[in-house]
Specification:
mainly beta; globular; six-stranded antiparallel barrel; PilZ_domain; 6 strands; Thrombin, subunit H
């Protein structure tokens, strides 16, 4: 029997790259942990988002060998273990 994460329609790719989230109240910096065609998972020590918030996200650093991935995304989950784990669903990629 397939586990829930194996039932996903889109494959996830493990990533360890800086990510920047712009919210209505400020900016959050974190690390992208995984990426798929429809969203990403982020780990951060900061929390400034709530489920259903719409944010601007930038994966990677400007001036690097690859242009940053930029997107508008909706927060679909916020969990806290040691750090905050934020799950984002892409609305639009730029």
């Amino acid at each position: 029997m397939l586990r829930e994460e194996e039932k996903r329609a889109f494959q996830r790719m493990a990533v360890d790259a800086p990510v920047f989230i712009k919210t209505l109240s400020g900016n959050i910096q974190g690390q992208c942990k995984d990426l798929s065609a429809t969203g990403m998972s982020i780990s951060t020590s900061e929390n400034g988002v709530l489920v259903d918030d719409v944010v601007a996200v930038s994966l990677g650093e400007a001036g690097g060998p690859v242009s940053p991935l930029r997107a508008e995304a909706r927060v679909i989950r916020v969990d806290q273990e040691r750090d905050y784990n934020i799950a984002l669903e892409f609305i639009q990629l730029y």
